[in-house]
Structures are given as structure tokens and as C-alpha cells.
Design brief:
The protein is α+β, with helices and mostly antiparallel strands. The chain has two domains: 116 residues, no CATH class; 87 residues, no CATH class. It is elongated.
């Protein structure tokens, strides 16, 4: 589903609700992009689903093949990192969440384990868990990753990229905006996932325009699917 088809789908669903509401192309882009962020966060793992006795959300990345496939378009290729002399590297600008970090020694990949910053000192002073090249660790700072041992020098990262805002590009023909694929930014979701994004977008529209029918219709579709 491209961005133009998504706009047409929104128009169709609103017509089906008999609300008489009109959304401009800019408004449709706005609610679609809010919806895709919400849907992305839901698939990756909503922190509101965590419980003290069950530290895993009901829906989270890699918990099922379907979720992994849905998020696959956002998965980076293995990306080499050059670590500086103090053991730091700047995080990729498009990174949303780290999936894995590895360090290669003689052709073998060793996992670099994430340790929260407040517990790093425990590892560094431990006689058992002190990091070395075969058992390195890292902590995530605001814009950098800190590696131990600091002499690690290189690593490879795989991460989920941030969703890019979709844009319905257009040109004006006889005073009317006409879809232009050349200036548009297309969604990267598969069609099934894009359907869910549209239903979530309609929920935003229903709340913003105070129209219960649109919101109810979108919520019903989001619950039941096609």
C-alpha cells in the first residue's frame, strides 16, 4: 500500500461511517505518522504492558515470527562500529533500538552484553564478570555507547531504525492538489500492517473531530482486522 492508497483508504472508511468529515492531505499525513509510531511501539514492546512479576510485555519484538516480519523493514544491516580510545562510539542517527552488538575475534562473533550504566562498576570490579574481549559489555549513554574493555576497538551493531514520516506529495493542477509519487515518501510497512496503521489513524481522527462513529468504526476494525 503506497501513501496515496492509504489516503484513499482513509477517505473510503470515513465515507462508510457517514460522518461527512473531510480531512486534508496534511491532516491525513499527520494522523498516519502518529499512528505508525504508536503501532511501531506496540510491536516493539509497550512499556505499559510490563508487570513487576512478568518483565516481558504481551507483544514485543521477536516474540513471534509475525512481529519480527512486521518490523523487518526497519531492521538495519550489520553496521561496523569504530570504537575510540576511551571505548566510546556515537550511536547511529537513525537508531531507535539496539537488537544486537557483536565483536569478532579470529572470525568468531562474540556477543557484547548490555549492562545498565548504574551497574557497570559492579562488572568492572568483579573477579568473575569483569569484561574482556571474549565477554565484552556496553552501556548506552544519551548519544554514545560505552564499551568495556575500552580497548575493544571494533564491533558490529544491528538495530531497529526509527520510522520515517510518510508524505503525500502533490502538485497543484487547476487549483486542486494531485498526487505526485515523485515528491512522496512511501510507507515501508507490509499491506497487512499498513491496514492496522490506517485503523489507528482513524482513531486519532475520531478523537480530534469528536465523531464517535468514525472512532468506533476504526476501533472495531483495529480489534477484528480484515
Amino acid at each position: 500500500m503506497n501513501i496515496n492508497q492509504a489516503h484513499q483508504f482513509i477517505d473510503f472508511l470515513i465515507r462508510q461511517s457517514n460522518s461527512g468529515v473531510y480531512l486534508s492531505p496534511t491532516e491525513k499525513d499527520l494522523i498516519l505518522n502518529r499512528a505508525q509510531t504508536q503501532y511501531f511501539n506496540k510491536l516493539y514492546g509497550n512499556q505499559n504492558d510490563y508487570r513487576y512479576d512478568r518483565p516481558v510485555p504481551k507483544i514485543t519484538y521477536a516474540i513471534t515470527e509475525k512481529i519480527s516480519r512486521s518490523l523487518a523493514p526497519f531492521l538495519s544491516d550489520p553496521t561496523p562500529l569504530t570504537i575510540d580510545s576511551v571505548g566510546q562510539v556515537t550511536t547511529p542517527v537513525d537508531m531507535y533500538q539496539i537488537v544486537s552488538i557483536t565483536h569478532a575475534i579470529s572470525g568468531l562473533d562474540y556477543e557484547v552484553t548490555r549492562v545498565e550504566h548504574d551497574r557497570v562498576s559492579n562488572n568492572l570490579t568483579s573477579e568473575i564478570e569483569a569484561p574482556d574481549e571474549e565477554y565484552p559489555i556496553y552501556s548506552q549513554l544519551r548519544t554514545k555507547l560505552q564499551f568495556y574493555p575500552k580497548t575493544l576497538a571494533t564491533a558490529n551493531i544491528i538495530y531497529l531504525k526509527k520510522p520515517i514520516d510518510m508524505v503525500w506529495g502533490y502538485t497543484i493542477v487547476s487549483g486542486v492538489p494531485v498526487y505526485n509519487s515523485g515528491t512522496s515518501v512511501q510507507p515501508v510497512w507490509e499491506d497487512m500492517d499498513m491496514n492496522e496503521v490506517v485503523y489507528l489513524a482513524l482513531t486519532y481522527a475520531g478523537l480530534n473531530i469528536k465523531d464517535a462513529d468514525v472512532s468506533q468504526f476504526a476501533n472495531q476494525k483495529s480489534q477484528t482486522g480484515l
